[in-house]
Structures are given as C-alpha cells and as structure tokens.
Amino acid sequence: MSSSRTVRKGAAAVVRHAFLIVAAAVMVTPFLYMISTSFKSQAYVLTVPPQFIPNPATLDNYVQVWNTQNFGRYFANSLLVAVTSTFLSVLLSAMMAYAFARFEFRGKKLLFRVVLLGLMVPTMMLIIPQFILAKGFGMLDSYLGLIVFYVAGNLSLNTYLLRSFFVSIPNELDQAMQVDGAGPWTRFVRLILPLSTPALATTTIFTFLATWDEFAWAATIIRDTELRTLPIAIRLFQGANATQWGLVFAASLIAIIPVIAVFLIFQRYFVQGLTAGAIKG
Amino acid sequence: MTRREAAPAAGGASRQALTPWLFLAPGLVLFLVAIIYPILNAAQMSLYDWNVLSAASSKFIGFDNYVRAFHDPIFWTALANSGAYMVLTVPPQIILGLGLALLLKAKSPAQPVYRVLFYLPVVTSWVVVSLLFKYLFADQGLINWLMDPSMASPISWLSSRWAAMIAIAALGIWKGIGWSMMIFLAALQGIPAALEEAATMDGANRWQRFRVVSLPAIWPAMAFVLVMLVIGGFNVFISVLLMTGGGPAQATEVVLTYLYSVAFGDLDFGYGSAIAVLLTLVVFVLAMIQLRVYRTDEEVSE
After folding, report:
1. Which CATH superfamily is domain A68-280 in?
2. pTM given for the model
3. Domain ranges in chain A?
4. Does the pLDDT value for residue B301 go beyond 60?
5. Is some CB atom of chain A closer than 8 A to the CB atom of B285?
6. Domain count, chain B
7. Closest CB from A20, A129, A212 relative to B103
8. Predicted ipTM?
C-alpha cells in the first residue's frame, strides 16, 4: 500500500518535471537561438536547415558592434539616462510616499488619488502633449528631455509601492526618535530609508529596467545620432531590406546582459515588487 | 490655510504644517507638469484641428475628430486588432501561467531555476524580443522550418493580417507567461497549508481541492492578473511597430501604432489626441471594472 503510494508520488513528480522541462525549453530556445545567431556570419543566419551551432563561428558581429557602430557611446547614453532617472525618481517618490504615509494634511486623499491616476493612464496617451511640452522647454534632442519624463513617468508606481511599505513601519519608532529630538528630515533619512531597503531595491530595479528599455519616447524626441539610447540603436541595426541579424543580436545580447545580471542578483526583490500590488492589494 | 490647520500646541506649529508639503513639492510639481497637464492638454487638443507649426492658429472643431474616428475604417481595424490581440493573448497567459504556478507550487531545489527561466522573457527589452520574433517568424526562419522541414511552402507570417497577428500574439504570450505565473505562485504559496490538509482529510481529490480551496484563495490575484492583461493588451505597440510596422497596407495596425503614425507620421496632433482620449476611456472603464471586482471580493470575505 505505502510503496504503491510512493511509486504513484514518484510518477507524479516525473510527469510534473517533464511538463516543466518542456515549458522551460520553449521559454529558453529563442534566447539560445539568438545567442547562436550572434556568432554567425550573415551568410548563415537564414539557412535551411537552420544552423543551431554556428559553423564557422565568428566574433565579427561583436567586434563590429563595438568598433564601428559607436555602440559604446549608446551604451554609455543608456547608462547615464537610466541611472540618473532611477535615482531621481526613487528619491522624489520616497519623499512623496513619506508625506503620504506619515503626515496629515489638507487634500491628502485627493492628492494621493491624483498620483495614482498616473497608474491608469497609458503612457502612449501622453506622447503628443508631452512632445509639445518638451519642445516648449527646449528639451528635444537632449538627455534632460529623456530624464525629466522618465522620472515623472515612474513616480506613480514608486510612490504607491513605497507608501505601502512606509506605512508598515511601526510609528513607535518615529516617536522614539522624536523624543530624542529628531525632526522629520532626520527620521526620513536615518530611520525610514534604512528600514526600507527591500522596497527601495524593488523600486530601483523596476525603474532602472523601465528606463533602460524605454523605446517610444526616446525614438520620438531623439534625432541626434550621438544621443541614441540602446533600444533605438538596436532597432536601427535592423536595415530596411537585408537585416544584419548577427549584428542585431550581438548588440541585443550586449544590451540585455546588464538586465539579466541585475535580475539574477536581485530576483528576490523582483518577486516582492511584483506581488506587492497584486496580493496585498 | 495650512497654518490655520496646524495644531496650536507646539511653538513650531506652522513649520510643522509646512513639512509634508516640503516632502511633496518636488515630485508633485514634476508630476503635475509632466503628467497631469499633458492629460488635460490631450483632452483639449482633441477638440482642435491642431496646427503643428503655430498652436495659436489651431481651429476649434468640437467633436469632429471623434466623429472622424468613428468613420475611419483604419481606426476600426486598429481597434479590432488590439481586441484580437487581447483575446489571443489573455486566456493563454492566465491558463498557462496558472498551470505553471501549480506545477511549481511544491518547494523543490529546481524551483528557483524554473522560476528564473520562465521570468527571463519578462525582463528582456521589448525591442530585443520583437526583433528576435521577427527573425524566428521570417519566411526562411526557424518557425517555418519547425512546422515543415522541407520548407515546401513556407508561410509568410508577417505579410498577412491574421498570420501576423498570431505571430505578434505568440510573442505576447511567450513574454508574459512568467509574469502571471509569478503572481499566481505568490498567491498559491499564501494559502495556509492547514486548509489543503483539512480538505484532503475530508476526502477531496486533487481537482476538488483546487476548485474549493485554491481557486477561491487566489481569486483576487486572478482578478488583478485579468485586468492588468486586458489593459496591457491595449498597450501593445513596440512588437507591432517592429514586426510588421502596422502593414501590409495598415492591416495589422493596433490602436497605439495608428495613434503614433497619425501623430508623428501625418503630424495630425488633434486627431491623434482624440484617438488617445478614446483609448484612455476604454482603459478607464476596464480599471473601474477592476475596482468593482475588488470591492465585491472584500464584501464576500468579510
């Protein structure tokens, strides 16, 4: 009886893993094929039957991307824009979240709702008026034009996530510090921020990803080739007729390696950030 | 105004009343200028025959832009395609995401590895995966070869409306499954083990346990995933732009690619704004439905 049950359990586990392995293979194959193609020369990218292992394998695509396509510059542009936007957006959001979490003031509820409105409005809906606004401020074709709107675009979600975290920090800690004579700014910097590392990590990762990958806005306001960010550059490697697929994927892989590294290192925070909105509501 | 509100007790009362506003001001000013003002501006522009060169000479035309959208066959095609994308992508993401979450629910050493693999597409840039799928669905590409290695009559996936919509939807599903899986997994792991055990003791089989214990427990997560995916469906943009460009002959245009080509191709900002407002209304209605679902849920559980 008990041994047949063990067998049945074992069989169930085998079936379970068989499903999971097939699913994992489906998810990963496109990536593996992309890596493979990035080592093929143009003559082999669309052969029949397809080449899974590049033969001959070549590093030419990577060399060309780095040396002749100004890719280092685009990488640096993306890094500068994403790091600056992320830092500013998380900082401003944390300040707003602190006000919403710890103070009573007139119009608080209404203002919080207005901020949450940003979660519901599709970003693309704003692209026309934001373009006119950026033009009016002379921000077209500039890092500033990217950064200002990236910071603003991420305020809603970050404020929402950080506020719920701040609220969960016991008020008694604030009061204890207050007794010691610490003002609100000291409490914010010395108490709330250090205790909120997981929430700050979550918002930092999400904002960095969003700004690193952003395409539509950058494609709309950046004309100067020197100011291109990675998504724009990668898109432009794809020529009108004969796409240099090896080049496109070598560039793509260079662009997504930082993202995957960040994801692998901080995946715990990813899950927290994802589920904060969904489960706790 | 804030001053009068402050508690009269402490000497620095007025300064205290000012404190929250100092924390709010930088973010809030930016938010009002860069997000809220553009929302209002879009609504206003949609009522004008907008002159790109000189805004001052734009002509007020009331709801003409909306009437035009109503009579615009390409707008309807775009709306239908966005709807089709939603119908093609939402159910698979929910069913497969939930299925994977159920398979992954039991803690095992391999679990984190699977989790990472399924989630990889979610964190990868839309531009990169759109180009990747364009390559996979090329005439001489991997998908055609997998379907028929002889390549006797390969399908031209990206040059006909419905084949292209299927390719674009395949990308959407592949990229999104990991996200819904992660939400469902967290919800499933939040179910107290005692509940499952009690049901097992009562003689409930696997399916009954799922129906009676798991499903009600993850219902709020289900509602959340459903609404986010439906709204996300209307936000499909980069994959269409990069895989088909809305072609051939605008047959695969979705609402956002059409909006973009009207605005930055034809420079018709007024009409583009009207499309943006219509899209926002659709999304708003969906968000309101979400709020209602949550509310009834709370009432049920209390």
Report:
1. MetI-like (1.10.3720.10)
2. 0.91
3. 2-38, 68-280
4. no
5. no
6. 2
7. A20
8. 0.91
Average pLDDT over residues B222-233: 88
Same domain, B20 and B87: no
Kindly tell me the burial class for residue A35, based on how many C-beta atoms sit within 10 Å of its own C-beta (0-12, 13-18, 19 or more).
middle
Buried/exposed B129-164: b ≥16 CB within 10 Å, e otherwise: bbbbbbbbbbeebbbbbeeeeeeeebbebbeebeeb
Residues B78 and B113 in one domain: yes
pLDDT at position B300: 43
Q: Which residues pair with B60 in a beta bridge?
A: B48
Q: How many CB pairs under 8 A join A and B?
A: 266
In three-state secondary structure terms, B49 is strand
- Comparing CB atoms, the residue among A20, A47, A126 nearest residue B39 is A126
Q: Are residues B153 and B31 in the same domain?
A: no
Subunit contact B284:A120, Cβ cutoff 8 A: yes
Q: Does A213 touch chain B (CB under 8 A)?
A: yes
Same domain, B212 and B106: yes
Residue A171 Cα, gap to closest chain B Cα (Å): 16
Closest CA in chain A for residue B121: A27
Residues B82 and B130 placed together within one structural domain of the fold: yes
Task: Look at residue B202 and tell me if it is in a domain.
Answer: yes
What is the model's pLDDT at position B199?
86
Residue A25 forms contact with B (CB below 8 Å): no
Query: CATH no. for residue B172?
Result: 1.10.3720.10
Query: Do B123 and B10 lie in a common domain?
Result: no
Question: Is residue B58 in some structural domain?
Answer: no
**CB < 8 Å & 24+ apart, contacts of B257-262:** B257/B78, B258/B74, B258/B75, B258/B78, B259/A124, B259/A127, B260/A124, B260/A127, B260/A216
Residue B53 lies in a domain: no
| A 121-160: CB under 8 A from B | 121-133, 148-149, 151-153, 155-156, 159
What pLDDT, on a 0 to 100 scale, did the predictor assign at position A265?
A: 86
**Residues A275, B182: contact at Cβ < 8 Å?**
yes
Worst-scoring range by mean pLDDT, A2-11, A56-65, B10-19? B10-19
Instruction: Tell me the per-residue pLDDT of B167-215, one tens digit each, with 9 for 90 and over.
Output: 999 999 999 999 999 999 989 988 888 888 888 888 888 888 888 888 8
**Host domain of residue B21:** 3-45
